[in-house]
Amino acid sequence: MTPPPPDLAVVGGLREDYFITPSGEVHIKEIGGNALYAAVGAAIWKKRVGIISRVGENYPREWIDQFEAKGFDTRGIKIVEGQHDTRTFYAYLSLEERVDNNPSAHFARIGQPLPPELKDYITSTEGQEDRQRFGELAVRPTDVPKIFEGVQGLHISPCDYLTQRTLPEAMRAAGIKTITCDPSVRFMQPSLKKEVAEVVRGLSAFIPSEMEVRSYYRNENIDLWEACAEFNAMGCAIIVIKRGSNGAYLFYNNEKWHIPSYPVTVRDVTGAGDAYSGGFNVGLAETADPLEAALRGAVSASIVVENIGALSNLDINPNLAEARLNSLRESVRKL
């Protein structure tokens, strides 16, 4: 018997994470990737989530088995012939500042040798700004299983430009109404305004991080509300700018809202923005209310930053998310 379609689906990368926390704690070959963290952010709300991604034959099959054991629908994970690099390195200089290159320098900084797995590592986002061809691990519209076309919502995590450019139109044509997107910083550049507008146009919600917005303007002093208005004018009704511990800005119907982050003891901020986006997509698909969606996003992020490891976030008290949602609702501000 064929399983039913998932409630929602997420698109993005499945990675092998190598990272250094702000306290200097080292993690080697952790299960990661923005698709997984977005899926976790959505699944926190008791939803069955489908993952759409591409990996090589060398990607650990036991990891996919773990996703299935946790309730994720893995029919959208395509195993591409050959060996493909899914390593991601990043080091946190603080809870708010993350760098993702030159691993040897960062391991030297904390007095530890470079892991042999990172000997030839350069970056995990090379080529995401390419406007001519899909990368080997870039999701194409044809990669989406037909049964996923019945989902309530679809979120596209930071990935190749061509994925973010072509997938929304194809999925709208297939009948998916709630489509959200978090752009890749690689193509959030002043010289690519036309391309960014092509990604933004027609989305249900555009959900960049503050870093991605500042990359787009190359201006540290840009007024974030003015940025929201500009993205809104590109043809997207709902704009959210994720600001880490400073919460998020929500802009729609010319209204400005500040949603604070939920106060928790932070252990690891990896995947927080992706989890926010997954939670936001759930809220928007279910309620059609941007403010309720933003609240769910904030709650998903708060749960992820309390733990280390994406899948560990699914072992929480089942009532925790709703309790935080009700608490946080009292703190939002209309500006």
CATH topology, anyone?
Answer: UDP-N-acetylmuramoyl-L-alanine:D-glutamate ligase
How is the biggest beta sheet arranged?
10 strands, mixed
Question: How far is the first residue's CA from the last residue's CA?
Answer: 52 Å
Q: How much of the polypeptide forms β-strand, as a percent range?
A: 15-25%
The named CATH superfamily: Ribokinase
Radius of gyration: 19 Å
Mean pLDDT: 93
Question: How many strand units?
Answer: 14
Number of domains: 1
**Low-confidence segments:** none
User: Which of globular, elongated, flat, extended, rod-shaped describes the shape?
Assistant: globular
Instruction: Classify the secondary structure makeup into a structural class.
Output: alpha/beta
Which strands sit side by side, in order, in the main sheet? 5-4-1-8-9-10-11-12-13-14
The assigned CATH architecture is: 3-Layer(aba) Sandwich
Q: SSE order in H/E notation?
A: EEEHEHEEEHEHEHEHHEEEHHHE
CATH class: Alpha Beta
DSSP summary: helix tally: 10
Q: How much helix, percentage-wise, in residues?
A: 25-40%
Describe the protein in words.
With 335 residues, this protein is an alpha/beta fold. The chain has a single domain (8-334), classed as UDP-N-acetylmuramoyl-L-alanine:D-glutamate ligase. The protein has helices at 34-43, 61-69, 103-109, 161-173, 193-200, 210-217, 224-233, 272-287, 290-305, 320-328; strands spanning 8-11, 15-20, 26-32, 49-56, 73-80, 87-92, 98-99, 153-156, 178-181, 205-206, 238-242, 248-252, 255-259, 333-334. The N and C termini lie far apart (52 Å). The mean pLDDT is 93.
